[in-house]
C-alpha cells in the first residue's frame, strides 16, 4: 500500500506540472516537430517572420486577456481596428496629408479608446452582457468604417507613416518592438499595479469585490478602453504595413484573439489569465499556420488542426 | 406505528455536527411542526428526508420499511415531497408545464400533447381547490401562488409526506389563509405534513404535534395542546451558557456612529440607534427581520429611502462600500463565499485586497512590504494556512472567516460591523473570534455584531437591539439582556412592513 502511494505521488506531480506548463511544453514540442520535418523552420528569417505575423493577433489578445479576466469578452476588436485604421489613413494620404503623422496616430488611438469606453459604459450602466454589447459595437464600427470609406480602401499613404508597419530597427521589424512594449505594459499592469489586482478580483468574485470597496465599474471601463486602444493600435500597424486601409480589415480577428487568450490559460468564467500565457497562445496559433504552410498542409486542414489544439488546451486547463 | 420514522439521524458538514441522533415520528393526517432557532438543524433534517442530503448515521422507516434515498427523485418516488423556502420555478414555462415537467403527456406522434397537459392541470387544481389558470407563465405568479402550485405538484406525485420549509415567511396574511385551507384539506386526506416555522402564533394554529430541535439535538416532541408559548421558547433556547465568551467590561466612550430614522421600504422602517466607542452592540432578531439589510445599507451596499447616518457627530453620505471604508467602516458579511472572498485567488491576495493603497509606490504595488504585512496578519489572526500563496478555497470555514476579518482589519477601521461572525465555523475558531472582538473593543474600536445565536449575543454584547419584521422592537441593556426578553422582542408581532 505504502509503496504504491509513494510511487503514485511523483507521477501525479509530473502530471500536475504538465498541465501547469502544458502550453509551454506544447509550444516547444511543436517547434521541434516542425524543424525536424523542415530545416527552414528554425531559421532566423522564418522566426522573425512568425513573430511579426503573430504580433497583430498578440497585441489584440493582450486587451482581450484583461477583458476576459474580468469575466467579460470583447467581440468588437476586429471592427474597431478597421474603423481606427481607415480614419487614421484618411489623414495621412500622400496626395493630401491633412495632419502630421503623430497627430493622426493619436486620433486613431483615441477612436479605439472611445469605442472601448462606449463598450464599458453600456455594459456597466445598462447592466448588459458584454457579449451582446461588444457584438453591437462589432456591427456598428464595421458599418461606420464602410460608410466612412464608401466601401473602398484608403490607399497611397505617406512613407513616414509606413515605418510603423513595414520599417526595421536593427534588422528587426518595428511591429515586433511594439508587441514587446505592449506585452511589458500589460504584464506590468496586471501583476504590479492596484488596477491589475482589481481586474483579477472583479473576475474572481464581482460581488465580493464590490463589497470590498472596489469600484467595479471603473475597472471594467479600464479594461474595455484598453482593449479598444489595442485594437486601434493593430489597425494602425496593419495599415502602415499594407500602405492601405480597407474597411474590411481585421474581419474575424476577434476569434484568434480569444483563442490565444484561452490557449494561454485564461478562464472564460473570469478571474484567471496571464500575459505570458496569452503571448505563447498567440505564438502557438501563428506557429501552427506557419509550420503547416511550410509542410504544405492545406488551409482547410489547418483550420481543423487549430480547432483541435484549442480544444486540447482547454481540456488540459480544466484538469488543473 | 407511525408512517414516517426517523431513528437516530446524525449529519456532519466538514466535521461540524449539524444533527445529533435525532429521532422523530410523523403520522399520516397530522401536521407536525418542527421548530428551533436558526441553525438548529430543522432544514437539514428535512432535506435528509427529502433525499437532498444523506444521513451519516441513523435510519428512516417509511410505512415500516427502511428506505435510503440517493437523491430527491428517489424521495419523490416514495411519495415524499418538499417545498423549499427558496422556490425554484422555471419562469418562462407555464404553470401546467412546471407541474408536469419531465412527465409531459405525449400524443401518438410522440409530440407534446398540450391540450391534455392543460386538462390534467385543471383537473388537479379543481381537486384541491386552487384557482389559477394553468396557462399562465410561472413568472407572472406571486410567491404565494407559486407555493400553491408547488403543493399541487406534490399532490400530483401522490405525495403522502409533504414537507414545507417556512412556507409563510414571504406571503401576506390573506394568502396565508388560502395556504392553510389547502394544508388542512390535505391533512384530512391523510397526508403527513411537516411544517417548519418560526412564527409562534402560526404554530399553535396549525400544529397537531410540535418537535423542538436545538443545536442539532432532539429536545422533544409534544402535542400542541400540551404546550404554550413560554414553554416552547424555553425549550428552544434553554441551554447552559458555556463560558467561551471572553467578554471583559470596558468603559464605554463617546458616540461614534448615529443612525437616524433609516428607512428602506419593505425591508426596515425608521431605525434609529447610536453606537459608542469601545462598545459591542448586538443586533438580534429572527431570519428575515431585516438585520442584514440594515447593516448593508449602513455600509453603502444598498441605498436607503430616507434617514441619516452620522459619524463622530458629522453627517456623512455613504453611497457605496468605498465611501464606507473612507469613513472608517468595515463590514464582515454574512455570506463569506458570496461577498467576503474571491475564492479563485490566494489567501494573501484576499487579505491585502482592501488595503492596496497602503502598498502603492508610484503606481506600483510594493510586493515586499505587502507580503510582510500579509504574513504578519496571518500570524496575528492565527490563520492556519501553509503559505499566503495557498488558495483561499482550500481553507476551512473558520480559517476563511479569519481571512475575511484579516482583510478588513488591514484597513484599520474604527467601526466593525460583523454579520453572523461565527456562522458555520468550529468552536475553536469561534473562541478566537470572540477574543478578537473583545480585544478590538478594548483598543477603542466599536463593534456591531449581528447574530442569530442568542448565547453569542448575550455573552458578547454591551447592549442589544432587537429587530422584528423591519422594526426596532427592543433595546436591551444589563439585566435585560437575556434569552426570554430577546425572544419576546424578536417575535413581537408589530404591524408588518408592506
UniProtKB/TrEMBL annotation, chain A:
One of its GO terms (cellular component) is plasma membrane. GO terms for molecular function: transmembrane transporter activity. InterPro entries: ABC_transp_permease (IPR001851). This is Ribose ABC transporter permease. It comes from the Bacteria. Keywords: Cell membrane, Membrane, Transmembrane, Transmembrane helix. It holds the Pfam family BPD_transp_2. It is found in: Cell membrane. The chain crosses the membrane at residues 21-42, 54-87, 99-121, 168-190, 221-240. It is a multi-pass membrane protein. The keyword rRNA-binding does not apply.
Automatic annotation (TrEMBL), chain B:
The keyword ATP-binding applies. It is found in: Cell inner membrane; Cell membrane. GO terms for molecular function: ATP binding; ATP hydrolysis activity. One of its GO terms (cellular component) is plasma membrane. It is a peripheral membrane protein. SMART domains: AAA. PROSITE patterns: ABC_TRANSPORTER_1, ABC_TRANSPORTER_2. The keyword Transport applies. InterPro entries: AAA+_ATPase, ABC_carbohydrate_import_ATPase, ABC_transporter-like_ATP-bd, ABC_transporter-like_CS, P-loop_NTPase. SUPFAM superfamilies: P-loop containing nucleoside triphosphate hydrolases. One of its GO terms (biological process) is monosaccharide transmembrane transport. Residues 4-240, 239-494 form the ABC transporter domain. PANTHER family: CARBOHYDRATE TRANSPORT ATP-BINDING PROTEIN MG119-RELATED, GALACTOFURANOSE TRANSPORTER ATP-BINDING PROTEIN YTFR. This is Sugar ABC transporter ATP-binding protein. It comes from Ligaoa zhengdingensis.
Amino acid at each position: 500500500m505504502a509503496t504504491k502511494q509513494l510511487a503514485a505521488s511523483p507521477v501525479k506531480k509530473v502530471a500536475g506540472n504538465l498541465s501547469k506548463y502544458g502550453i509551454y511544453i506544447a509550444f516547444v514540442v511543436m517547434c521541434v516537430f516542425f524543424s525536424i520535418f523542415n530545416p527552414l523552420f528554425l531559421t532566423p528569417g522564418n522566426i522573425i517572420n512568425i513573430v511579426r505575423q503573430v504580433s497583430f493577433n498578440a497585441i489584440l489578445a493582450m486587451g482581450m486577456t484583461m477583458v476576459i479576466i474580468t469575466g467579460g469578452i470583447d467581440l468588437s476588436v476586429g471592427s474597431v481596428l478597421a474603423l481606427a485604421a481607415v480614419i487614421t489613413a484618411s489623414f495621412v494620404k500622400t496626395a493630401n496629408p491633412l495632419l502630421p503623422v503623430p497627430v493622426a496616430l493619436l486620433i486613431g488611438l483615441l477612436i479605439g479608446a472611445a469605442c472601448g469606453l462606449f463598450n464599458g459604459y453600456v455594459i456597466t450602466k445598462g447592466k448588459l452582457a458584454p457579449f451582446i454589447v461588444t457584438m453591437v459595437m462589432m456591427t456598428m464600427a464595421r458599418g461606420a468604417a464602410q460608410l466612412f470609406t464608401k466601401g473602398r480602401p484608403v490607399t497611397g499613404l505617406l512613407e513616414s507613416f509606413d515605418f510603423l508597419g513595414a520599417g526595421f530597427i536593427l534588422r528587426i521589424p518595428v511591429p515586433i518592438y511594439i508587441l514587446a512594449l505592449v506585452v511589458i505594459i500589460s504584464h506590468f499592469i496586471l501583476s504590479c499595479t492596484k488596477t491589475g489586482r482589481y481586474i483579477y478580483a472583479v473576475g474572481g468574485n464581482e460581488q465580493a469585490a464590490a463589497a470590498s470597496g472596489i469600484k467595479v465599474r471603473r475597472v471594467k471601463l479600464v479594461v474595455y478602453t484598453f482593449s479598444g486602444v489595442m485594437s486601434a493600435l493593430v489597425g494602425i500597424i496593419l495599415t502602415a504595413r499594407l500602405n492601405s486601409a480597407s474597411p474590411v480589415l481585421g474581419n474575424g480577428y476577434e476569434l484568434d484573439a480569444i483563442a490565444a487568450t484561452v490557449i494561454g490559460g485564461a478562464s472564460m468564467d473570469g478571474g484567471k489569465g496571464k500575459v505570458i500565457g496569452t503571448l505563447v497562445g498567440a505564438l502557438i496559433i501563428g506557429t501552427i499556420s506557419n509550420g503547416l504552410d511550410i509542410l504544405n498542409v492545406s488551409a482547410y486542414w489547418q483550420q481543423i488542426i487549430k480547432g483541435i489544439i484549442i480544444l486540447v488546451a482547454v481540456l488540459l486547463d480544466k484538469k488543473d | 406505528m407511525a408512517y414516517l420514522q426517523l431513528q437516530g439521524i446524525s449529519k456532519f458538514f466538514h466535521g461540524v455536527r449539524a444533527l445529533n441522533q435525532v429521532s422523530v415520528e410523523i403520522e399520516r393526517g397530522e401536521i407536525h411542526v418542527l421548530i428551533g432557532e436558526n441553525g438548529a438543524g430543522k432544514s437539514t433534517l428535512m432535506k435528509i428526508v427529502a433525499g437532498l442530503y444523506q444521513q451519516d448515521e441513523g435510519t428512516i422507516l417509511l410505512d415500516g420499511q427502511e428506505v435510503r434515498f440517493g437523491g430527491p427523485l428517489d424521495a419523490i418516488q416514495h411519495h415524499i415531497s418538499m417545498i423549499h423556502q427558496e422556490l425554484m420555478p422555471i419562469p418562462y414555462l407555464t404553470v401546467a408545464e412546471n407541474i408536469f415537467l419531465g412527465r409531459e403527456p405525449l400524443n401518438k406522434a410522440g409530440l407534446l400533447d398540450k391540450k391534455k397537459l392543460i386538462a390534467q392541470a385543471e383537473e388537479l387544481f379543481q381537486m384541491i381547490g386552487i384557482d389559477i389558470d394553468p396557462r399562465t407563465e410561472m413568472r407572472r405568479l406571486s410567491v404565494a401562488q407559486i407555493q400553491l402550485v408547488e403543493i399541487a405538484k406534490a399532490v400530483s406525485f401522490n405525495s403522502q409526506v409533504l414537507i414545507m420549509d417556512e412556507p409563510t415567511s414571504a406571503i401576506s396574511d390573506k394568502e396565508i389563509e388560502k395556504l392553510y385551507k389547502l394544508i388542512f384539506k390535505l391533512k384530512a386526506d391523510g397526508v403527513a405534513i411537516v411544517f417548519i416555522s418560526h412564527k409562534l402564533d402560526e404554530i399553535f394554529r396549525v400544529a397537531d404535534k410540535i418537535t423542538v430541535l436545538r443545536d442539532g439535538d432532539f429536545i422533544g416532541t409534544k402535542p400542541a395542546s400540551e404546550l404554550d408559548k413560554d414553554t416552547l421558547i424555553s425549550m428552544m433556547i434553554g441551554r447552559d451558557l458555556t463560558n467561551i465568551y471572553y467578554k471583559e467590561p470596558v468603559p464605554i466612550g463617546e458616540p461614534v456612529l448615529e443612525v437616524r430614522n433609516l428607512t428602506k421600504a419593505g425591508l426596515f422602517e425608521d431605525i434609529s440607534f447610536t453606537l459608542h466607542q469601545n462598545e459591542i452592540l448586538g443586533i438580534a432578531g429572527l431570519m428575515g427581520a431585516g438585520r442584514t439589510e440594515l447593516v448593508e445599507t449602513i455600509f453603502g451596499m444598498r441605498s436607503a429611502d430616507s434617514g441619516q447616518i452620522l459619524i463622530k457627530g458629522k453627517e456623512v453620505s455613504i453611497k457605496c462600500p468605498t465611501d464606507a471604508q473612507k469613513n472608517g467602516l468595515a463590514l464582515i458579511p454574512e455570506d463569506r463565499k458570496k461577498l467576503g472572498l474571491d475564492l479563485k485567488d490566494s489567501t494573501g491576495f484576499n487579505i491585502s485586497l482592501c488595503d492596496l493603497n497602503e502598498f502603492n509606490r508610484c503606481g506600483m504595488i510594493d510586493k515586499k512590504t505587502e507580503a510582510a504585512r500579509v504574513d504578519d496578519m496571518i500570524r496575528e489572526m492565527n490563520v492556519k494556512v501553509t503559505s499566503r500563496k495557498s488558495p483561499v478555497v482550500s481553507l476551512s470555514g473558520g480559517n476563511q472567516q479569519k481571512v475575511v476579518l484579516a482583510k478588513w482589519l488591514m484597513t484599520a477601521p474604527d467601526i466593525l460591523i460583523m454579520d453572523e461572525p461565527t456562522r458555520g465555523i468550529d468552536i475553536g475558531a469561534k473562541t478566537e473570534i470572540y477574543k478578537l472582538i473583545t480585544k478590538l473593543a478594548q483598543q477603542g474600536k466599536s463593534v456591531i455584531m449581528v447574530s442569530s445565536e442568542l448565547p453569542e449575543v448575550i455573552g458578547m454584547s454591551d447592549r442589544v437591539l432587537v429587530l422584528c419584521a423591519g422594526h426596532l422592537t427592543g433595546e436591551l441593556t444589563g439585566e435585560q439582556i437575556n434569552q426570554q426578553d430577546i425572544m419576546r422582542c424578536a417575535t413581537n408581532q408589530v404591524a408588518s412592513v408592506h
